[in-house]
Design goal:
Helix content is 48%, strand content 15%. With 216 residues, the protein is α/β, with parallel strands linked by helices. The structure holds adenosine-5'-diphosphate and zinc ion (ZN). Zinc ion binds next to loops.
């Protein structure tokens, strides 16, 4: 089973993709997290991705596609995966379709989380992320119980360097120009499920579960 989460930066893809992955027992593959981990470890991949991420533009597709297909071929992904932050442009979407097709597989659903631009800006500007488990919280909307510490795992909270005003603006621009066209691409394949992304985490999760076809 392959499910893609699509939406602007700050739409809540990571949170919702993580919850659904846990529930379905699938791996949660977040390309942004993979790049940040690579950077933290100082690998070649991380160093290559660094300048693009800081600017808020896409890492070249060749690098990204290679990384994702390699991750998908790992043994823990034989049952499928939940993809978050990939594909992010048409080239990546086509490469993914082709790679899955070659293995007799296909994408099952695309969950598109829609949030107004005003709400996105508010969320990103107050966002703090756990260094250990990547869980986000918000300085005013969902503050941690202990300042600077993750409610879920006690890890250290930090602000992503690309959550500054200039990079956020750029990321939204890139999203509209390169990623938003994927909404059409997946609508044509009848795979798209549109979810209203405003409201609490649990509320949005409930909408997603209700909208996904299947046993739930
Ligand atoms: P957000 O969705 O909040 O912008 P991500 O963590 O998904 O954050 O991505 C952070 C950065 O990582 C992006 O701005 C981009 O530079 C890089 N990145 C992540 N996914 C991709 C991708 N599929 N293709 C190219 N670059 C990517
Ligand atoms: Zn944590």
């Amino acid at each position: 089973m392959y499910i893609i989460f699509l939406g602007a930066p700050g739409a809540g893809k990571g949170t919702q993709a993580g919850e659904l992955a846990r529930e379905l027992g699938l791996e949660h593959i977040a390309t942004g997290d993979l790049f940040r981990q690579a950077l933290e470890r100082g690998t070649d991949l991380g160093l290559k991705a660094k300048s693009y991420m800081e600017k808020g533009v896409l890492v070249p597709s060749q690098i990204t596609i290679g990384m994702v297909l390699e991750r998908l071929s790992a043994p823990d992904c034989t049952k499928g995966a939940i993809l978050d932050g990939f594909p992010r442009n048409l080239e990546q979407a086509e490469a993914l379709d082709k790679a899955l097709r070659e293995q007799g597989k296909a994408i099952d659903n695309v969950v598109y989380i829609k949030v107004s631009e005003e709400e996105l800006l508010k969320r990103l500007s107050g966002r703090w992320i756990c260094r250990r488990c990547q869980a986000p919280c918000h300085a005013t909307d969902s503050p941690p119980r202990v300042w600077g510490k993750c409610d879920k795992c006690g890890g250290e909270l930090y602000q992503r360097p690309d959550d500054n005003e200039v990079s956020v603006k750029k990321r939204l621009e890139v999203y509209l120009a390169e990623t938003a066209p994927l909404i059409d691409y997946y609508t044509q394949g009848s795979k798209l499920i549109e979810i209203a992304g405003e409201g609490g985490v649990a509320e949005v999760a409930k909408r997603i579960k209700a909208a996904l076809p299947g046993e739930r």
